[in-house]
Amino acid sequence: MHDTTRELIIVGASGLGKEVAWLAARLKLTVRGFLDDSDELAGQRFAGLPVLGRVVDWPAHDDCQFLVAMAAPRVKRRVVERMQDAGSPRYATLIDPAAMVEPEFTRVGEGSIVCAGSVCTADVIIGRHCVVNKLCSIGHDVQLKDYATLSPKVMLGGHVVVERGAEIGAMSCVRQGTVIASGVMVGMGSVVCKPTELNTLYLGSPARPIKSLELF
User: Fold this and answer.
1) What is the DSSP string of 130-179?
2) Do residues 127 and 108 lie in contact, with contact meaning Cβ atoms separated by under 8 Å?
3) CATH match for 95-204 among 3.40.50.720, 3.40.50.2020, 2.160.10.10, 3.40.630.30
4) Cα–Cα distances in Å, from 198 out to 14, 180, 215?
5) Rounded-to-integer distance, Cα 113 and Cα 215, Å
6) 199-208 long-range CB contacts below 8 Å, 24 or more apart?
7) Fewer Cβ in 10 A, N or C end of the chain?
8) Does domain 8-85 have CATH number 3.40.50.20?
9) What pLDDT band is residue 1 in, cutting at 50, 70 and 90?
10) DSSP code of 56?
């Protein structure tokens, strides 16, 4: 979980980064600033906070805890791997006080966030560097593997497995017992009733494969 004795640095001056800053404020955490590789943001402020440098500069702030605020799983994984090449950063785990996540029933990995209004029921496992956005419904025995991303209002039935780096768009539903394969992207408003193929975009109700994606 997050460490209330350490300041937080948000990696990624993005829309999700703004939401992480908002969540940190709700958790009474002090945010030191952002790290971002954009030349335009160097030395500037973002969401009222300083941009402290580039991603590779994180060791200069190793007294802090970090959260990589990038919704795209492939980008996030590359950033995490770059950070780990330079050492062992401490990653925060942020759970909004308005989310229903009980520690005795749900395990949440480092670097992950669970946003306001989301509900995790019984025997839920959320891996490392995952995003559970606002108002998601996660049924019993669901597993989100590392880097999985749920957009707002996603509904997962019981025993669903979302493999590494899969991303499910807003207001999509996944039938109980379905496996969302690694690297899959499910488009907004889709209904997934059958297992999916690796690194594929799915759209529609019922969701159908549209095109192949970059390998995760």
Assistant:
1) -EE-TT-EE-TT-EE-TT-EE-TT-EE-TT-EE-TT-EE-TT-EE-TT-E
2) no
3) 2.160.10.10
4) 27, 8, 8
5) 24
6) 207/172
7) N
8) yes
9) low
10) G
| Amino acid identity for residue 4 in this structure | T
Q: Where are the domains of the chain?
A: 8-85, 95-204
pLDDT, one tens digit per residue, over 22-78 is 999 999 999 999 999 999 998 899 999 999 999 999 999 999 999 999 999 999 999
Please name the residue that has the structure tokens 């025993």.
159
Q: What is the pLDDT of residues 97-118, one digit of tens each?
A: 999 999 999 999 999 999 999 9
Q: Which residue from 69, 100, 189 is spatially nearest to 114, judged by alpha carbons?
A: 100
Q: What is the 3-state secondary structure (H, E, C) of 100-127?
A: ECCCCCEEECCCCEECCCCEECCCEEEC
Q: Does pTM top 0.90 for this prediction? A: yes
143: β partners: 125, 161
What burial class does residue 84 get, using C-beta atoms within 10 Å of its C-beta: 0-12 exposed, 13-18 middle, 19+ buried?
A: exposed
Distance between CA atoms of residues 199 and 48, nearest Å? 37
Helix (H) or strand (E) holding 9: strand 8-11
Q: In the structure, how many helices (H) and strands (E) does the chain have?
A: 2, 23
Distance, in Å, from the CA atom of 115 to the CA atom of 24, rounded to the nearest integer, reads 11
